[in-house]
Amino acid sequence: MSGTGDLFEMIDRSGAGFLEKIDDQKLGNANSLLSSYIYEKMDKYDITPRDIVTKTNISQSHVYQIISGKRGAGRDKLIELALALGLDLDETQLLLTLGQSGTLYPKVRRDAAIICCIKEHMDLYETNECLKKINENEL
User: Fold this and answer.
1) Confidence (pLDDT) at 134
2) pTM tops 0.85
3) Mean of the per-residue pLDDT values for the chain?
């Protein structure tokens, strides 16, 4: 697969004709890219789908659908996944990007609190307690 930089160069050179010239095998859809990234992180951190289910408020069937790429996830569910996987902030931001959700933005109070929780390696319960303390919606 071409690197991201290579793809940007091809887009710059080809403009609108890019999609006609590119091999479909080099591009993935959002759900498959998200799925691949989640599997990569599950392997890296030795986390199973069952672990994710127990560490989130996401139903077992929904977790398996997200992981397999059959279903997308909303922003809060992706943040729950990030917490369950123990992702750092950069990894979480990439997860949100791949999930086509807005990244965490520190000028937004709720996002700033979530960023702090991620940096402090808090789990979902601790993160929700933190959000509750500052009168923000829980995940």
Assistant:
1) 97
2) no
3) 88
DSSP string, 1-42: ---HHHHHHHHHHHGGGHHHHS-GGG---HHHHHHHHHHHHH
- List the CATH number of the domain containing 67: 1.10.260
Does residue 112 belong to any structural domain of this protein?
yes
Structural tokens at position 91? 């990894």
| Domain boundaries, position 41 | 30-133
Q: How confident is the model at residue 5, as a pLDDT?
A: 64
What are 14-44's pLDDT values in tens digits?
A: 666 666 666 554 555 666 889 999 999 999 9
Residue 8 maps to a domain:
no
Reduce the secondary structure of 41-102 to three states and give it as a string: HHHHHCCCHHHHHHHCCCCHHHHHHHHHCCCCCCHHHHHHHHHHHCCCHHHHHHHHHHCCCC
Q: What DSSP character marks residue 105?
A: -
Contact 78, 41 (CB under 8 A): no
* Domain-located, residue 128: yes
